[in-house]
Amino acid sequence: MYHWQVPKTASAAVRLALMERAAQMLATREPVTLRALVDGTGASTMAVYTHFGGMPGLWRAVRQEGFTRLADRLAGIEFTRDPVRDLAALGAAYAANALANPSLYRTMFDAVVDLDDPGAAAQPFQLLVSCADRAREQKRFAATSDPEAIATRFWAAGHGLIMLVINEVLPREALPIHAPAIATAVFVDAGDDERRCRRSVEAGWVGEGNAGK
Amino acid sequence: MYHWQVPKTASAAVRLALMERAAQMLATREPVTLRALVDGTGASTMAVYTHFGGMPGLWRAVRQEGFTRLADRLAGIEFTRDPVRDLAALGAAYAANALANPSLYRTMFDAVVDLDDPGAAAQPFQLLVSCADRAREQKRFAATSDPEAIATRFWAAGHGLIMLVINEVLPREALPIHAPAIATAVFVDAGDDERRCRRSVEAGWVGEGNAGK
DNA sequence: GCTTTTGCATAGCGTCGTTATGTATCGCTG
DNA sequence: CAGCGATACATAACGACGCTATGCAAAAGC
Known about the structure:
The structure is a homodimer of 213-residue chains. Chain A is mainly alpha-helical and 213 residues long. Chain A has helices at residues 13-27, 34-41, 45-52, 55-75, 83-100, 102-108, 118-137, 147-166, 174-189, 194-210.
């Protein structure tokens, strides 16, 4: 796979403008075609090729940016002494980020594997793993529990829920109803006490701006 | 939204040939373009327009066929006296069907809402609901449990897992590891006894040809 | 300060989905 | 069975797509 190198020189402003416009077109559900993209910025089609090597390169940059922004948002969450609450808070922020820009979220997972920096995509997952590990250390989860497995299940379930909501198979309200429920089910399965888990998940979920939604 | 009506006259053989070829191209990861599609059947591009009204119509027909085949496959499962086992069996068959043709599964969910017969897409879900309802009647699940909610959570979690596997974010082995685990977590959360649930899920999962995978 | 490299505008190529047009073939009716 | 409208499809062409060849001005390097 050929990986496009970003020019080391200055004038990466055009690059940023193109990506911003692509994200905006994605958000407004406009079809993101090469010509419509550059018409908005005043640049010519060649700009996309000098900066991204073509449309696939642009998509990869957009996906990368999506994961980077997501990682930044999740990194801004302040962890508490309750790792289960933190897991729910991460999930809530993750979901809110996805629903705030559904087209971008879908684009991100069009080809997750093909990124300039695969680490950016793994970062959110690692946050989940570390929280699950903390929960294990604090005896909330069983000593035999596997933090990676718990993180994987929580993530996969949330991803599925989000995808179904984005594709309008499930209504938006389904997410704040079922996401905490699945989270609780997974965490209790990992060993947490049910009532305590329910309180932690509830606290983490509403703590990240999903109240009432 | 304009819905294309299939011609009531005979000679729907061309229609079938086109759909079959489209499914085959999807399976072999060939890009499904109009011209490549008709070149394979000997027909001309117009055939796609008389039968489907255009490429979007073809995609809708393919999605419809995907859901119909899925519904047929799930309908072939013989239910037992253990509804929890049956839930797992449905999930296993669903997952096996999706992994047997990943491109088709992805296509199906590209626009689930836009189908000639939306009932075909709801049918698999209704099977889950009826099993969850049976589990409730048999006191496996709590009397206060909501069969639709349980079905939704099970389905969403499975969908997410499948999508991540299809997009090569998770390895194929992740599915037989995590799917039963999530299922158990959800069903226990619904009220089932943990050890009994684990046995039922295990029995249902391997009962549908996923053993070892 | 001249040469080389870089960044991008212009114009054109091949392919995409789509459509206008022409023409057989089918099915119905008198 | 003759006649005729509707149907099914081949042919050719259109606009828009992603992409590339070419040319030129600005920046970078010696």
